[in-house]
């Protein structure tokens, strides 16, 4: 049986990946910070799909924890066939904030950890000449809305660079760029999403199904649903001053939501 390792695999998009892969018969290695939630998720997935679920309690902002997960990815006795780098959170602090902890934690979890774990997985997979790496980025990387946009722009570019590096090795790399998805992500960030039209919201399970179809096709960039494909194409071709104007408008709405 194939095995997939999913970071942030107990909630939101990560949990949707875990369910979808378990339904396909993958054994799972789930990585998250909350040990109890890992145990509950593991039990539920095993009961429903009959797959083996291994858990690793880890905070990817802590180097020792990150190295433990990297070592698991490179363990030749227990090969991992797919890595899903999904762990992440909203970074709301402005660049002018005196406390830079949010920025540093965001960089560690969503940039450094993604690159480190992708590299570890790739080394092991190249030896077997097969494997898939999925990095959950965001359409936010195409706008300019603070640290989160900058982080996700890095994640997308880093994934494309890795795809170039691994071309011809049998290892396939995909960056998933979701838009607004109904998960705990926004509520944890204090964002109600009330200003976002209903048609812009995506279901996490549908998102993952479309993403996995793109992975199977060998696509390096996956933007599920036509509405977001059109939006990303428009942002890609807009002049940069126009992108910054759009970003200011969205940021203004976001700030009003946070104050509500």
TrEMBL record:
It is an enzyme of class 1 (oxidoreductase). Pfam families: adh_short. Keywords: NADP, Oxidoreductase. The keyword Secreted does not apply. One of its GO terms (molecular function) is 3-oxoacyl-[acyl-carrier-protein] reductase (NADPH) activity. Its EC number is 1.1.1.100. GO terms for biological process: fatty acid elongation. InterPro entries: NAD(P)-bd_dom_sf (IPR036291), SDR_fam (IPR002347). Belongs to the short-chain dehydrogenases/reductases (SDR) family. This is 3-oxoacyl-[acyl-carrier-protein] reductase FabG. It comes from Kocuria varians (Micrococcus varians). The lineage of its organism: Bacteria, Bacillati, Actinomycetota, Actinomycetes, Micrococcales.
């Amino acid at each position: 049986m194939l095995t997939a390792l999913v970071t942030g695999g107990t909630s939101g998009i990560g949990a949707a990946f875990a369910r979808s892969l378990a339904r396909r018969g993958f054994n799972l290695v789930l990585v998250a910070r909350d040990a109890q939630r890992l145990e509950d998720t593991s039990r539920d997935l095993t009961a429903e799909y009959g797959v083996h679920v291994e858990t690793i309690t880890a905070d990817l902002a802590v180097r020792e924890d990150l190295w433990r997960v990297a070592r698991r990815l490179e363990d030749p006795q227990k090969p991992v066939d797919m890595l899903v780098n999904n762990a992440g959170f909203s970074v709301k602090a402005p660049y002018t904030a005196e406390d830079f902890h949010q920025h540093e934690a965001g960089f560690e979890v969503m940039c450094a950890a993604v690159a480190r774990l992708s590299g570890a997985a790739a080394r092991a997979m190249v030896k077997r000449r097969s494997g898939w790496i999925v990095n959950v980025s965001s359409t936010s990387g195409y706008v300019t809305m603070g640290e989160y946009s900058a982080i996700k722009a890095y994640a997308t570019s880093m994934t494309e660079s890795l795809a170039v590096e691994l071309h011809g090795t049998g290892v396939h790399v995909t960056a998933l760029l979701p838009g607004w998805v109904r998960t705990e992500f926004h509520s944890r960030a204090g964002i109600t999403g009330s200003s976002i039209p209903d048609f812009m919201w995506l279901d996490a399970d549908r998102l993952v199904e479309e993403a996995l179809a793109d992975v199977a096709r060998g696509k390096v960039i996956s933007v599920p649903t036509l509405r977001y494909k059109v939006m990303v194409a428009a942002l890609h071709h807009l002049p940069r001053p126009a992108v910054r104007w759009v970003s200011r408008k969205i940021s203004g709405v976001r700030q009003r939501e946070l104050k509500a």
